Amino acid sequence: MELRRFFSLHTCRRVVCLSPALGLILNAADPSSAILNDLEKDARTVCAINRPLKSGARRELRTINTIILHHTAIDTLSGSLSTLRSRGTSYHYVIDTDGVVVHLTPLNRVAFQAAGANRPAIGISFVGGVEPTWRPTDAQWSAAKSLIAALVRRNPNIKYLIGHGDVRDTNAGEPYNVNFDQLLTELRNVRLQHLATNQEPLATFRRSAAYLLEHPRTAAEPRPSVPTPERLTCTGGKIRILN
Questions:
Q1: Range of the structural domain that residue 99 is part of
Q2: 70 Cβ contact partners less than 8 Å away, ≥ 6 residues apart
């Protein structure tokens, strides 16, 4: 790719920067390139979606203090992405069943993932969770630990790790069968806290989520569209098409 000649991680202070691993041009204010390269150094396969999902307002990275874990409730990556697009919702990252980490939304933008807690949070979702007996695969579990550690290394303001079910009772148990105590124990050199519902900022998240549930905003009707295959650019510049 010709742009490789002009951009590198060392030119991120300018308008754009290039992820050498993926050959993608990313916004200079978004540390996604560095995060993805950190994961590659940890022998992870990473991908970035070529059409980012719907996102909200820009935000300062220093305001991010929480990581929220989810499951997609759909058992395939392509089905999960299709549903997110049709609903106008999003995560920052999704982890496929084989442990591949897919970057979906810039970190310097709010993702529509957990109403009431979106602005200061990063959303990570596991593909799966159709049934309450579901649990992350070993590959997903391992990838989640690498991703969380990379995010915290790059942004030490991140202090809390919670599930979507902690924010909204209507999503109780999400993500299914994730033992947060075990996850925090297995995260090496990373100190995060899984909050009780009466601890801040989770208590505020829950009040905001409850208010939004009782006073829903009028949303535009989703426009019917012709399904378009998702195109991912992955480690080594490999292209992956999801039908």
A1: 44-216+225-242
A2: 91, 113, 114, 123, 124, 125, 126, 163, 164, 174, 175
CB 92 within 8 A of CB 111: yes
**How many domains, the chain?**
1
pLDDT score of 21: 45
On whether residue 180 sits in a domain, the answer given is: yes
Which is higher by pLDDT, 27 or 53? Answer: 53
Task: Supply the CATH number for residue 86's domain.
Answer: 3.40.80.10
Asked if residue 50 is part of any domain, the answer here is yes
Q: Summarize pLDDT for 131-176 with one digit per residue, the tens.
A: 999 999 999 999 999 999 999 999 999 999 999 999 999 999 999 9
The number of helix segments (H) and strand segments (E) in the chain equals: 6, 12
Q: For the chain, give the number of residues.
A: 243
Provide the β-strand partners of residue 69. 124, 163
Distances in Å between the alpha carbon of 232 and those of 25, 151, 159, 184, 229?
Answer: 13, 21, 31, 30, 10
Place of tokens 């390139």: 33
Residue 16 tokens, joined: 């754009």
DSSP-derived secondary structure letter, 92:
S
